[in-house]
Amino acid sequence: MINIKICKNCGITNNKLWCSDREDSTIILCSKCYREKYPVMKKKRKTRKDALLAEDGESLYSKYCKGEITGGKYKNEQVKKKGFNNQIEYQNDLVKKRGFENRNEYQNKMIYKRSDTLPMSENKECASYLGIYIAEEILPLIFDDVVRMPDGHKDYDFICIKGYKIQVKSSCLRNIYDKWIFMIRKNKIADYFFMVAFDNRDDLNVLHMWLIKGDENIKTNKFDKKLNERVSFTIINGEKLMKRYIKYEIIDKLDEVQKVCDEFKKNLSVI
């Protein structure tokens, strides 16, 4: 004998989920009718007595989690509760307890402790060593009256006398794959990309230099795409493949540029 369940409220028979009425367990209800009769009551989250509260009474941490206030504002409110005006004052107080005058002295001490004190001109591991410092000396040989942007300037590094924005990119040859990779990051602000291809960071031999317009349509094996629409741009070190970029290559200044790099090597060997 087949036991057919029927909802006492709506009469439905083909529901997959059934519930017994809380008031009378002999009465069968479908899940929909059960939820209508006994809606789920959301428990109100308890607020800690020492929690930071906004003007409307809601926890500041809750507002921070929902993105209604910034992390900086939330942290400032935290240190204000401890009797400080801002985070800098709080951090200075912490480092003073450890024997430092202020947080700047502490940070400098930690930098020395990590032996991370070499300036960019001497630190080969610095990402800007090839891309900015060396290129600063190279670019005047290629362009007239270039103006360098401040360190960390976004989207381009130099402006030439004609007003073109130039982004400097450098790369060392990856011997395993025999190629150079230049990170473009879809930069559409720069007018030109000046790319310098080195053999390695130790020898600093400039093998190639290319100057390519940002909106230039570059042909690769897979597809044609504008340079400034690419995340990265790869040039494979092969005779046949290199020919497609020969029209962008700067050859006549290569010897002068190499002399600049040789001077860098001499200076570094003395240090």
Q: Tell me, what is the CATH class of the largest domain?
A: Alpha Beta
| Quaternary structure type | single chain
CATH topology of the largest domain: Trna Endonuclease, Chain: A, domain 1
Mean pLDDT: 78
Our count of helices gives: 8
**Helix-strand pattern:** EEHHHHHHEEEEEEEEEHH
Q: How far from one another are the termini?
A: 96 Å
Helix fraction, binned, reads 25-40%
Rg calc = 33 Å
* Domains (count): 3
The number of E-state strands comes to: 11
Taken as a percent bin, the fraction of beta residues is 15-25%
User: Structural class of the secondary elements?
Assistant: alpha+beta
The biggest beta sheet, please?
A: 5 strands, mixed
**CATH architecture descriptor text of the largest domain:** 3-Layer(aba) Sandwich
Q: How would you sum up the global shape?
A: flat
Weakly predicted, low-confidence segments: none
**Strand order, sheet with most strands:** 3-4-5-7-8
Q: Please, could you describe this protein's structure?
A:
This protein is an alpha+beta fold and 271 residues long. The chain contains 8 helices and 11 strands. It has helices at 31-37, 60-65, 71-81, 87-96, 103-113, 128-142, 239-242, 254-270; strands at residues 18-20, 28-30, 147-148, 158-159, 165-172, 179-183, 192-198, 206-213, 217-219, 224-226, 232-236. The strands form 4 sheets. A 5-stranded mixed β-sheet has the order 3-4-5-7-8. A hairpin with a 5-residue loop joins strand 4 (158-159) and strand 5. Helix 6 crosses helix 8. The longest helix has 17 residues, at 254-270. It is flat.
